[in-house]
Amino acid sequence: QVQLVESGGGLVQAGGSLRLSCTASGSIVSVNVMAWYCQAPGKERAFIASITNGGSTNYADSVKGRFTISRDNAKNTMYLQMNSLKPEDTSVYYCNGNIKTRVRSGEYNGNYWGQGTQVTVSS
Q: What are phi and psi of 32, to 5 degrees?
């Protein structure tokens, strides 16, 4: 069983900053690619940024230069530093992880989601 728990969301004024965190726990062998997605009401879930366990990153064009993804492999934790926030960044932000776990028959590679954290940017 694996859990991804996000934290750090909240209400901020346009131009402000927030830092999201996501921690993976459970019978983890290794955490591979981790990513952030967002989903606004009435819209599909959209990719924000990803990071490999080696530190390679990828960003959606809409957040390049404003958001920074990072991770602490020792803590199985990923971060999203969000600067210069805009009202259109308002969304629920979800953590996603490709994680290898111990199971009774050996190991299992699975894709897991957190429960989401609300980010609201006021104008």
A: -95, -120
Query: What are residue 19's phi and psi, to 5 degrees?
Result: -125, 115
Cα–Cα distance for residue pair 4/101, rounded to 1 Å? 13
SS3 106: strand
Q: Residue 115 and residue 94: Cα distance in Å, rounded? A: 7
What burial letters (b/e) apply to 26-40, b meaning 16+ CB within 10 Å? eeeeebebbbbbbee
Please write the tens of the pLDDT for every residue from 15-55.
999 999 999 999 999 999 999 999 999 999 999 999 999 99
pLDDT tens-digit series, residues 42-97: 999 999 999 999 999 999 999 999 999 999 999 999 999 999 999 999 999 999 99
Residue 97, Cβ density class (10 Å: 0-12 exposed, 13-18 middle, ≥19 buried): buried
Give the residue from 120, 121, 71, 62 showing the smallest Cα distance to 97. 71
